[in-house]
Amino acid sequence: MATIKKILCAIDFSEASPLVAGYAETLARSLGSEVLVLYVAPSLSQYVGFHVPPSSIESFVKDIVSGADQTMARFLEEHFKGIQAKGEVVTGYAAEEILSQAKEEKADLIVMGTHGRKGIDRILFGSVAEKVVKSAPVPVLTVRPEQYDSE
Q: Considering the entire predicted model, what is its pTM?
């Protein structure tokens, strides 16, 4: 049987995040695991050159990260009381950063939500969860959006 000592819980602060956190918290509590709660802020570097000065983009990203740090502190307090959990806010592409952090932190399990994109959105934006599931070196527990409405 595999030992799960560290769980990476990837969230986006959407209405689905508390449900995703609930799965990570329940697993951590029952297995005695620690949790790394990860939020990936978009880097927006792809917009450099679109008549937007790089300094404006950098400033905007810093504001996003600053706000996310504060939101993360509240989120940890609300959803991970009584277990060993830390929050991390990084910038970049979500799937890449989730995989990178899982490797760097030696996570034994990734817990994340899916957004259930369909049609043209799926073609244009792909699925972060799908990319993580296909490339993760550890098991990935995904929570579907249909479950969010049932609470």
A: 0.82
